[in-house]
Design brief:
Among the domains are: 11-70, no CATH class; 252-318, Methane Monooxygenase Hydroxylase, Chain G, domain 1 (Up-down Bundle). The chain is of the alpha+beta class. The strands form four sheets. Strands 5-13-12-6-11 form a five-stranded mixed beta sheet. It has a four-stranded antiparallel beta sheet with strand order 1-2-3-4. The longest helix is centred in the last third of the chain and has 27 residues, at 292-318. It has helices at residues 11-18, 22-30, 82-89, 127-133, 139-144, 190-199, 213-228, 252-264, 271-287, 292-318, 334-345, 372-382, and strands at 34-36, 44-47, 59-62, 67-70, 77-78, 95-101, 105-112, 115-119, 148-155, 173-181, 207-212, 234-238, 247-250, 324-331, 351-353, 357-359, 362-370. Helix content is 37%, strand content 24%. Helix 3 (82-89) packs across helix 7 (213-228).
């Protein structure tokens, strides 16, 4: 065993399994690029940052006598211009599949110790998501396919990370968008994955079609314009065999919705997050060759998405309020609420909680995440502090 009290891992055996030198694994631990998960999941170790070809968010499960690796979801590149991006990135194949990119948070699901476990993108085991996932997936799938990891999007209004009401989901639901093999991370083909999900009754992201390469850009443009009006996020463009990496493309309305949320909490939001969405708008209006009226509408939508929430934030702070992100969660087991609160507090979040109340056979709790940085910065500027 190693000499680091917060990591109980056999370095030699783990390094051999991962094909990493023990010294390299030790270095990852020292730099806190390999961290132990909490509580009953302390035999699971998450990677932060890439390490020897292992993606960030990957989880190493120590079974005592053996190991399993749940690879992090590969980073998906974004198309800024549809036609050239599709032509370049899918060169050599005849067609591409277009599926919906839903707006929630993605998780990976496996069965472990007779329980379904939900890993977040970062490799944490979220207690709330893990409790909810029991309602959406059947264990038969995992028992029949023990080497498969199911990737999906958690969407709905009762969502602690991204609250959206555009998917006709009352509380929270899970939609499969990928399946991959443990250890290797190789993906099942799109239609094999969809067939398996259908057989086991798993909900899936919407399939828009399989389009010839030369027609795909125009088809995606039509889809994006239609779903954008409904407030949905965008699409994933995929090689049907999942050999080539997928490409994502988002609606203007989704870019503006992201900006609207981010500018409400302007002092917490990263500049790259804000800037990239403005740049997307510039490339989209160019490729779509918009006339002056369409361009004017885009400018109004973009400008209002930034200035509107900032104006509201300043007004609220000026009136003595603290800026917060408010959401609700619903669980069957009352204890999960306490575990989820502890989970959030470990990230250093400033939280306020209402008393849970019973609704049928479930418990609901309202949670308020205080955005201290934006609240404090706005108050200081209102009092005359200079911007620096």
């Amino acid at each position: 065993m190693n000499n680091y009290p917060d990591i109980e891992l056999d370095i030699e055996k783990a390094g051999d399994f991962l094909d990493l030198q023990p010294s390299r694994l030790t270095d990852l631990i020292e730099k806190r690029n390999l961290l132990q998960n909490w509580d009953e999941y302390d035999n699971m170790y998450r990677f932060e940052g890439h390490a020897g070809g292992i993606p960030s968010g990957s989880v190493l499960i120590d079974n005592g006598s053996s190991f399993k690796l749940i690879r992090g979801f590969p980073k998906i590149r974004r198309a800024m211009l549809l036609e050239p991006s599709i032509k370049v990135n899918f060169s050599g194949i005849d067609s591409v599949v277009v599926e919906e990119k839903m707006n929630g948070y993605n998780v990976r699901v496996v069965e472990y110790d007779d329980e379904l476990i939900a890993f977040t993108r970062s490799g944490h085991v979220c207690p709330y998501t893990t409790e909810r996932i029991q309602n959406f997936l059947e264990r038969d799938f995992f028992r029949d396919n023990p080497d498969i990891v199911v990737y999906g999007e958690m969407v709905g209004p009762e969502n602690p990370y991204v609250q959206k009401s555009v998917y006709n989901v009352e509380s929270l639901d899970f939609f499969v968008f990928d399946m991959r093999y443990k250890d290797t991370g190789d993906a099942l083909s799109v239609f094999r994955r969809r067939e398996m999900a259908e057989v086991y009754g798993l909900k899936q992201v919407m399939l828009f079609g399989n389009f010839p390469l030369e027609k795909a850009a125009e088809k995606v443009k039509e889809i994006i314009k239609a779903i954008g009006k409904e407030g949905r996020e965008g699409v994933m463009i995929k090689d049907p065999d999942m050999v080539l990496q997928p490409v994502k493309y988002t609606c203007s309305e989704s870019n503006c919705s992201d900006l609207q949320h981010a500018f409400r909490f302007y002092n917490e939001s990263g500049k790259d997050f804000l800037f990239s969405r403005v740049v997307r708008e510039g490339f989209q209006t160019h490729e779509w060759d918009e006339n002056e009226e369409e361009f004017h509408k885009r400018c109004l939508r973009l400008g209002k998405s930034m200035l509107g929430p900032m104006r509201d934030t300043i007004a609220h702070v000026s009136g003595g309020e603290r800026i917060s992100d408010d959401f609700s969660i619903r669980v069957k087991d009352r204890e999960v609420i306490d575990r989820f609160i502890t989970y959030l507090e470990r990230f250093g979040l400033d939280l306020l909680f209402d008393t849970p109340h019973k609704s049928g056979n479930e418990y609901i709790i309202n949670i308020r995440k205080i955005n201290k940085s934006t609240s404090d910065k706005t108050q200081a500027l209102l009092e005359g502090q200079l911007w620096s």
